[in-house]
Write a structure and sequence with these properties.
6-stranded mixed beta sheet; binds (S)-3-Hydroxyhexanoyl-CoA; 28 helices; Rossmann fold; alpha/beta; N-(1-d-carboxylethyl)-l-norvaline Dehydrogenase, domain 2
Length: 690
């Protein structure tokens, strides 16, 4: 056989082992020998049963995503599953690790599935803008029922082995050596004798489908999909499994898959899949990482508390430091409350709550940070405050401890230069709420040691964060680009758009919310303070803040919020204020189309991204996409600002930027030279310096 597929015969049970590291994806070099092996075993009289198993850390985790968009090399997965399903002797999939996508579809081609107790099974294609294209939408409902199948396929979330057993997806769950158990299982089944019913013929649970309930839930899911095509196609395909004959439903699934795989949305989502993995890669892979056990967090406010929870959730003991017992107790009480809410909601078990709370140690003495391997300060955003804290850390932290600041804007090189160990200093810019938001900007300062950087990149991944390494500049990648967007949002207000018109243009584009809803949620006072510190103004937002309108927390901001509700209500007072300010500036209001709102706000943002790349603040255009999708809600179906710029065309973006530059004279519209090179070469690569 080939290196990727091998066959052994254990007393009449054939074991077909797939070995294609790292995740046993069904690449062409696996499919070809797998098909040959199945055909040979089908016709081999010495074989009474067949087990399909995998070497390494997991069962097949899916089709090979790198092959999408290229001509399909036969045999494809569908042909393999059809061949497998037609074998008259019993076939058993032995699942450990993750049976995902095409991997689970392969297992659904078997008569039986057995799983290791730690295994996970799912069809996550929707996360790549696809639907399962190897028969998953038609076979899974036949085992677990249509409603459960739709939920699994539309969410893409895998289920554990025990749950899979309960739903009928898995026939047995084992502890210990899975292949041995699977062989014994197969032998026993073969001994009892057939006929063995393939999944395609098992439609007992389909008859129970309540189509009205199914359609109601599908409609709700479609609404939540916010313009994404894949979740809608997934639900449609599962419905077909109920209403159409098997082969017809399979043919429609195929047609939908072919359409989606060629769509911009799926291309965007596949781009993001690889971008997130690429972002975690640093040059000089072999650097020895530092050991991180205890983590210190300075500041028990919203940010510090969230950061502390993120590490406790990741299994790290945490020392939480405050300036007074009172502030410390307040911070710890909030953490306790947050965990209690998770238990009430059912997302955390009582055991896990106690275990996590057990990780915390509170203190008001810097000396207690002496046994921490990583210390993150999340104190007030002020250079003098930060320098004072770092001075204290310099005195108490153990040698080799990594000293991090959670600053959103400040110059980390300046902080590092103020202490005796700049090589240990870096930025860890978490996004609020830090225990929930996935993005972490890791800021490499001028003197940060490579091993310190590699350590936090690795650590971030282990606590479930999506990490992007960025360089030092005001606002790093995310907030610097946000500022470029923000100044134009305000300008559009003065020219005649209302906050709700602008926000609607954003949500229609696919954002979860627009800039003004976002500002009200985050608190307008944050940006106000930051602008004042830098001598900047934003006339509307500043006036709202002067009136005490800080957003949701004060019940009033760009919108009104009644009785603690989070639903924004347009406020005539704010609209009058905008008109007054515009009149003061001599700006006559005009009607502004949604297209203009998008290009005036997003093209400057992309332009700033190009400048960031040019300066080497981000290493890759795809890193910027990862920041925007995971930290700011950029629509995944558009792949992030830089990917989307490629779809729109850099030439068109430059043309529009130049138009607005001529009209307004503003710097944000001055096209970056990298944007011009992108227009010529079609690639951001040309200017990437890091
Ligand atoms: C599908 O199956 C369609 C079918 O329905 C129809 C077909 C007709 N292909 O994530 P990791 C690479 S769609 C190619 O860091 P982990 C990944 O890029 C597919 N490459 O590991 C990385 O490469 P590198 C449905 C893949 O342990 C390396 O493997 N399946 C694939 O944290 C390690 O990955 C999915 O969507 C792939 N399918 O997590 C599952 N998968 O080292 C996608 C991974 O060069 N995969 N790579 O950066 C995953 O969710 C995670 O990789 C997994 C392991 C949970 C399996």
């Amino acid at each position: 056989m080939s290196n990727s597929v091998s066959v052994a015969n254990e007393g009449g049970v054939a074991i077909v082992t797939i070995d294609n590291p790292p995740v046993n994806a069904l690449s062409f070099h696996v499919r070809e020998p797998l098909m040959q092996a199945l055909v040979a075993l089908r016709d081999d009289a010495s074989v009474a049963a067949i087990v399909i198993a995998c070497a390494g850390r997991t069962f097949v985790a899916g089709a090979d995503i790198t092959e999408f968009g290229k001509p399909v090399q036969q045999p494809d997965l569908r042909a393999i599953v059809a061949t497998l399903e037609a074998i008259a002797k019993p076939t058993v999939a032995a699942i450990h690790g993750t049976a995902l996508g095409g991997g689970l579809e392969l297992a659904l081609g078997c008569h039986f599935r057995v799983a290791d107790q730690g295994a996970k099974l799912g069809l996550p294609e929707v996360k790549l803008g696809l639907l399962p294209g190897g028969g998953g939408t038609v076979r899974l409902p036949r085992l677990v029922g249509a409603l459960k199948a739709m939920r699994m396929i539309v969410s893409g979330t895998p289920i554990g082995a025990q749950e899979a057993h309960g739903t009928g997806l898995v026939d047995a769950v084992f502890e210990g050596d899975l292949t041995t158990h699977a062989v014994n299982f197969a032998r026993e089944i073969a001994r009892k004798g057939g006929p063995f019913t393939p999944v395609r013929e098992r439609d007992e649970s389909l008859g129970e489908t309540d189509l009205a309930a199914f359609d109601a839930e599908a409609a709700d899911l479609a609404r939540k999909a916010r313009g994404l095509e894949a979740p809608v196609a997934c639900a449609q395909a599962v419905r077909n499994a109920v209403t159409l004959p098997f082969d017809e439903a399979l043919a429609v699934e195929r047609a939908l898959f072919v359409k989606l795989v060629a769509s911009d949305q799926s291309r965007a989502q596949r781009h993001l899949f690889f971008a997130e993995r690429e972002a975690a890669k640093l040059p000089g892979k072999d650097v020895v990482k530092r050991r991180i056990s205890r983590v210190g967090v300075i500041g028990a406010g919203t940010m510090g508390g969230g950061i502390a929870m993120a590490f406790a959730n990741g299994g790290h003991p945490v020392t939480l430091l405050e300036t007074s017992q009172e502030a410390l107790q307040r911070g710890l009480a909030t953490i306790e409350k947050n965990y209690a809410v998770s238990v009430t909601r059912g997302s955390l078990s009582e055991d896990a709550r106690q275990q996590r709370l057990g990780q915390f140690k509170g203190s008001i003495d810097h000396a207690d940070l002496g046994d921490c391997d990583l210390i993150i300060e999340a104190a007030f955003e002020d250079m003098a405050v930060k320098k004072e804290i770092f001075g204290k850390l310099d005195a108490v932290a153990k040698p080799g401890a990594i000293l991090a600041t959670n600053t959103s804007y400040l110059d980390i090189d300046e902080i590092a230069a103020s202490i005796s160990r700049p090589q240990d200093v870096l930025g860890l810019h978490f996004f609020s709420p830090a225990n929930v938001m996935k993005l972490l900007e890791i800021v490499r300062a001028e003197k940060t040691a490579p091993d310190a950087l590699a350590t936090v990149v690795d650590l971030a991944r282990r606590i479930g964060k999506v990490a992007v390494v960025v360089g030092v500049c005001h606002g790093f990648v995310g907030n610097r680009m946000l500022a470029a967007r923000g100044s134009e949002s305000e300008a559009l207000l003065l020219e005649g758009a209302t906050p709700s018109q602008i926000d609607k243009a954003f949500t229609d584009f696919g954002w979860p919310m627009g800039p003004f809803q976002m500002g009200d949620l985050a608190g307008l006072d944050i940006g106000w303070r930051n602008r004042k510190a830098r001598g900047l103004t934003a006339v509307i937002a500043d006036t709202l803040c002067e009136q005490g309108r800080f957003g949701q927390k004060t019940g009033r901001g760009f919108y009104l919020y009644e009785n603690g509700s989070r639903t924004p209500i347009p406020d005539p007072e704010v609209e009058a204020l905008i008109r007054d300010k515009a009149a003061e500036k001599g700006i006559a209001p005009r009607t502004i189309a949604a297209d203009e709102i998008i290009e005036r706000t997003l093209y400057p943002l992309i332009n700033e991204g190009a400048k960031i790349l040019e300066e080497g603040i981000a290493a890759r255009a795809s890193d910027i996409d990862v920041v925007w999708v995971n930290g700011y809600g950029f629509p995944i179906g558009k792949g992030g600002p830089m990917f989307w710029a490629g779809l729109v065309g850099a030439g068109k973006i430059i043309e529009r930027l130049e138009y607005w530059l001529e009209l307004t004279g503003k710097d944000v519209f001055k096209p970056a030279s990298l944007l011009k090179r992108m227009a010529e070469s079609g690639s951001w690569e040309a200017g990437s310096t890091a």
